[in-house]
Amino acid sequence: MEIISSNSIYLYRDGKNKTKLTLKGIEKVLDEMDDCSLYQKYMDKFESDPGNIQSWTFCANAALQLCNAPNDNARNTILKQTVVTLKAILPGKPCPCSDVIPASAWNKY
């Protein structure tokens, strides 16, 4: 992953093909959402620990989605998707955001 600007990133697959992602209208969406403290904690890690930015991105995203999930089914879906993805990029390592992802979810998926 490469940060291009405050609203654009490049995603790389196997260090080759890159996809540019650009955020549009995020300010309006966030104004209507609970911007939970755990989300901000992991966003702050972007600067303090840029070597693990991919993990912090998934942790921040999960925190924000979980704060705003409408029900338990939605929360379980968010947890499963996040755990599966984090385990794929961090094989054999512990959960990087145990305050966002409960141990029971990390161990389940």
How many β-strand stretches?
A: 3
Morphology call: globular
The assigned structural class equals alpha+beta
**Count of structural domains:** 1
Order of helices and strands: EEEHHHHH
* C-alpha Rg (nearest Å): 14 Å
Helix content: 40-55%
Mean pLDDT: 85
* Main sheet specs: 3 strands, antiparallel
CA distance, first residue to last residue: 24 Å
Q: How many alpha or pi helices? A: 5
Taking pLDDT < 50 over at least 5 consecutive residues as the criterion, the unreliable ranges are 26-31
Fraction in beta strands? 5-15%
Strand order in the sheet with the most strands: 1-2-3
Briefly summarize what is shown.
This protein is an alpha+beta fold. 53% of the residues lie in helices and 13% in strands.
What does the secondary structure layout of this molecule look like, with pairings?
Blueprint: E1 2-5, E2 8-12, E3 18-22, H1 26-31, H2 37-48, H3 53-68, H4 72-89, H5 103-108
Helix pairs in contact: 2-3, 3-4
